[in-house]
Input
Amino acid sequence: MTGTFKNIPMALKETLNARRLLCPLPVIRTQDKVKLLKPGDQLEVICTDPGVMHDIPAWCRINGHKVLETHSCDHEYIIVLEVGE
Amino acid sequence: MSKQRKAVALISGGLDSMLAAKIIMEQGIHVEGINFFTGFCVEGHTHAIREKSNAKPTRNNALWVAEQLGIKLHIVDVIEEYKKVLINPKHGYGQHMNPCLDCKIFMVNKAKQWIVENDFDFIITGEVIGQRPMSQTKSKMPIVSKQSGADDLLLRPMCAKNLPATLPEIEGWVDREKLYDITGRSRKPQIEMAKEFGIDDYSQPAGGCCFLTDKYYSAKLVDLWKAQGTKDYELDDIMLLKVGRHIRPRPHFKLIIAREEGEGRFLQGYKKEFTSMHCSSHPGPLALIDGVVSAEDLYLAAQIVGRYGQGREAEQVDITVTDQEGSERVLQVKPLRTDEISNDWHV
Output
């Protein structure tokens, strides 16, 4: 959802479906999506390759983004990140 | 104050590119990494799919190297553009379907485009003269520089002293004396250098980092092109070549049979694109049928799939066939014996 409240931009929370993609494609799709977001926005990435539990946090660390949450459920791996500066 | 010079390093995830970046960083150059994903990169794919490897998921070595070096890494999807390199390589293939020289030219060319777009000054690779027979020889290195369009903006810190000086050296952005003169296939100089830099953990993939250097993968790719009647592919095609047992009993169709649970789960994701089958009377693997099949073909496919389930010795098994729309039918077949599955059918 997007919008403003008293001229303060609201942070976006978007979801990226990276199911069936094998690493590094989930990382590439995350990287491409993050380019369209602004600092403070959140992105939830849903994957089926367990390798993302290493790769997306590593990509976040080297590029200055923050991983807020990781969990897995029924062979799906979900990572929520916050876009850095 | 002199301008802060910036270089982009081609990072494969192996030791050589890691060292090349490190050498230049030590000279005060701002370095960022770039990694190109062609669709054929080995990086953990089969490990990600196969169940038995799940206990120890592999890391992406390019990301890991970037993190160790403390640099940014830009991973670039070149799947579509890479097709023309693989389908029609100007310099031909290596031992298998690996177009190594064209691939290197392509990647350096992409890096050249990237430095122009991102206001960087030059390109670094971890190439070493004589390290690889097809793309890393003294005679091939100028070809890569010239045909990629990078020319003297391409610096190979590991063997620079054995090559003509490049612009970063001529302009004094880097000190040529602090570059290296490594040649040959031995890994000793790199291992020594890693020690000097305090690098004690690195990847040294024995079979390279590309599926196209793999004999069995290359055979499956050639089979795909032969069956299609054209040298072309989509990402799903080349992903599926990494998964399962491929059996082509007739020229116009093949079976992709999961070898274990992880592969079965991966193939489940393709049930809307392919007719699939599995044994419903006994435990057995999921199989996809790639090609257009007649009723007779379907019966043969079911007999083959029966062979790879626990009902292989039964007089009769039930094979459930599911089409792309999800409609199911059951075929009752006698599984083929091992000796009835021709060796020639295995791709």
About this structure: The CA atoms of residues 47 and 53 of chain B lie 5 Å apart. The first helix of chain B runs from residue 15 to 25. Chain B has a mean pLDDT of 92. The first strand of chain B starts at residue 6 and ends at 10.
